[in-house]
Amino acid sequence: MTDHAIPSDSGQLPERDHEDLARAHASGADVELAVSTVIFALRSDDRFGAQGLAPTLWLPLVRRIREPFEGRWALPGGPLRVTEGLADAARRTLGDTTGLAPRYLEQLYAFGDADRSPLVRPSAELPGAARVVSIVYWALVGSGEAARATTGQNVRWFPADELPPLAFDHNVIVEYALWRLRNKMEYSRIAHALLGETFTLAQLREVHEAVLGKPLDPANFRRSMEASNALVDTGERLTGTRHRPPKLYRYDESVDLADNGPLPPP
Question: What are the start-end ranges of the E strands in 112-244?
């Protein structure tokens, strides 16, 4: 058992995950490793039937179907298999629960306080109790891909700033992911992961406003973006607008979404 929801009707871990956990207990391990992901996307809030509202940050959560915290919402995730890398586990669990394959994926932090979750209860198959350490990733997807994500009774999107009480320490994890995202917006080009290949300056500003949670002066924003040398004018314009069609830009593809230093991309 892990501290993450597996959205299946049976409430059982997938057989391979169950075997990995049993192997860890058989070897005497008293700490289990799991991988979780905070995945952000821009979505319009249509809960009240309003049209034309500016998009805000949302994230998918999965409902726990077993104790502890049965019925609570939690971040998508699952146990780390003995044969896979951390980023591979994050991609797998995201695909299994939400069907999403994010363009941007970065390791956030390791959460392993001794009191972060109730100990896993022993059973005939898992004879020893264990604490769970979660390696957390954060990811970004465009609104188009987010609209195609798997949803249902056990998977639902929530506004990032209006979350219910989550299982374990997942509210703290989301707060930390939001803090990291908002800081990175100031010096990296990860806004690209929330946009299409081409975009207008107004669309780019809309992303920054949604992430930062505040309006930005259009003229100052334009000057800042043009001075960054991160944008390339495509020579094309957005069609279908009432007024003069705005220019379309793209990010300079010679610059990575974020600087990983000497580490390989995830």
Answer: 131-140, 155-159, 231-237
User: Which residues lie below 8 Å from residue 29, measured CB to CB, with a gap of 6+?
Assistant: 130
| Single pTM value for the model | 0.79
Q: Cβ distance 56 to 162 under 8 Å?
A: no
Pick one of 3.30.465.10, 3.40.50.360, 3.40.630.30, 3.90.79.10 as the CATH number of 15-184: 3.90.79.10
- Length reported for the chain: 266
pLDDT digit string, tens, across residues 73-116: 999 999 999 899 999 999 999 999 999 998 889 999 999 988 78
Distance CA 173, CA 230 (A): 30
Task: State the fold for domain 190-251.
Answer: Arc Repressor Mutant, subunit A (1.10.10)
